[in-house]
Specification:
Blueprint: H1 2-11, H2 15-55, E1 58-61, H3 65-68, H4 78-86, E2 91-105, E3 110-118, H5 120-123, E4 141-145, H6 146-152, E5 159-165, E6 171-182, H7 187-192, E7 193-197, H8 198-204, E8 213-218, H9 224-233, E9 241-244, H10 245-248, H11 250-288, H12 290-298, H13 303-339, E10 341-342, H14 343-346, E11 353-356, E12 359-362, E13 364-365, H15 371-388, H16 390-397, H17 401-406
Parallel strand pairs: 3-7, 4-6
Antiparallel strand pairs: 1-8, 1-9, 2-3, 2-5, 2-8, 4-7, 5-6, 10-13, 11-12
Helix pairs in contact: 1-13, 2-11, 2-13, 2-15, 11-13, 11-15, 11-16, 13-15, 13-16
């Protein structure tokens, strides 16, 4: 405790220099946490946008369906498969879907469309295909992608004809009332999609109890590999194709990987800033106190204790700076998480969303931090402080009492 008190007192001998070092470390930590919050929020935003409404974290199909899109390549007894998936504690929700090409007509002109049969109760949940849709679909009712509706001149309440091929090769056709144009996060559905309830699609396309795809959302994305392994081991899923989102969207994996590399580059900047602040402060303090160190050595203080005190000063300097920077950084991220970061506003206006990878991307995302992010930054500062203290500590350890007293 005596060494700690002496180290603390020595740290504040030159209050201006120590304050400047603390500001440098604190500002670096603040900026890194803010940037880390933006990167994590950006990664979560990308992952949620691509997996939430369209891909899910895991997809189940009949073999070869993704390559051929044949109507008759279906999953049988979908209700049992969905029930088995929902029993897994790692699963949040399960959505079965049907995709069927068809022709839609309001008058004489026909338009190529994709009919999507969905579980409306699941698809209207947050971050899903029909999030925010207030309409409920009764018998003979559908939603239509807003761009397709404009192209066809369809308004709410209009009756359209749908004609396609059923899974058994027969003709699928019926009349449906468009309840409302739908704006989804999936571009091709906005341009070509006609959405109806799953049971209605099963009836129209002669697919009783069948579906083309089951989309699964996991409670935590990191649980997906284990979830896929468990599903592949279940007898009910034998003979099906089970793929995770990384396999389905490798380009998104590459983008998120780039974000991770950017985070490590910024962490290196923290090391450099912290090392510069601590090393400069400790070296100056060591040179200024050479005479004092010589006197302590002459009075019997061991070099080991002097090294210990020097190290304590460096660690204290790093911890105080990291604590101040962490408080400011966490507060900044919490504030921007509540308000959101709007890229359109930051760049001087323009569209509030863009289309990429077949998805509609909102240009507002919400920075966020996890406890592990804060711990890593503080640990980096402490380690850097210890490394920066090595040179001053070695110099102190090599001091000769008589020579130090003359300096």
């Amino acid at each position: 405790m005596t060494s700690v008190r002496i180290a603390w007192r020595n740290l504040w001998r030159n209050g201006r220099r120590t304050t400047l070092a603390l500001l440098a470390i604190g500002l670096s930590v603040t900026l890194v946490l803010a940037y880390n919050g933006m990167l994590r929020g950006y990664s979560d935003w990308m992952l949620e946008t691509i997996t939430g409404p369209m891909l899910g974290h895991v997809q189940v199909h009949a073999p070869k369906w993704r390559e051929t899109r044949d109507m008759d390549r279906t999953l049988d007894d979908v209700e049992s498969l969905v029930a088995a998936l929902r029993r897994d504690p790692a699963v949040v929700d399960v959505n079965a879907r049907i995709y069927a090409p068809a022709l839609a007509a309001l008058g004489e002109e026909g338009f190529a469309v994709i009919v999507i049969g969905v579980d409306l109760a699941e698809e209207t949940r947050p971050q899903r295909l029909l999030t925010g849709a207030a309409q409920t679909l009764g018998p003979g009712q559908v939603l239509m992608g807003d761009q397709l509706a404009r192209q066809m001149g369809v308004k709410a309440g209009d009756v359209i004809a749908l004609v396609g091929q059923a899974a058994d090769g027969s003709l699928a056709n019926d009349l449906f009332t468009v309840v409302a144009p739908a704006r989804t996060a999936v571009d091709f559905i906005n341009r070509q999609g006609v959405i109806m309830s799953l049971d209605q699609a099963q009836t129209l396309f002669a697919m009783p109890g069948e579906a083309h795809e089951i989309m699964v959302h996991a409670r935590h994305p990191e649980d997906v590999p284990a979830l896929v392994d468990r599903l592949r081991a279940l007898p009910a899923f034998r003979g099906t194709e089970i793929l995770d989102w990384k396999t389905l969207a490798p380009q998104m994996v590459a983008l998120i990987g780039i974000v991770q590399i950017a985070w490590w580059l910024v962490l290196v900047l923290v090391f450099v800033a912290a090392a510069s602040g601590v090393a400069n402060t400790m070296l100056m303090a060591t040179f200024e106190r050479t005479h004092e160190f010589g006197m302590l050595l002459a009075l019997g203080t061991t070099p080991r204790r002097l090294v210990w005190m020097t190290t304590l000063e460096a660690v204290a300097l790093g911890l105080i700076g990291a604590a101040c920077g962490t408080a400011a950084g966490v507060a900044l991220v919490a504030w921007t998480h509540r308000t959101g970061v709007d890229f359109a506003r930051l760049t001087g206006g323009g569209p509030s969303e863009l289309t990429s990878f077949g998805m509609i991307w909102s240009l507002t995302f919400y920075p966020t931090l996890l406890p592990v992010d804060v711990v890593r930054v503080i640990a980096a500062v402490v380690i850097t402080s210890l490394l920066a203290a090595a040179w001053p500590a070695i110099r102190v350890a090599r001091l000769q009492p008589a020579r130090a007293l003359r300096d």
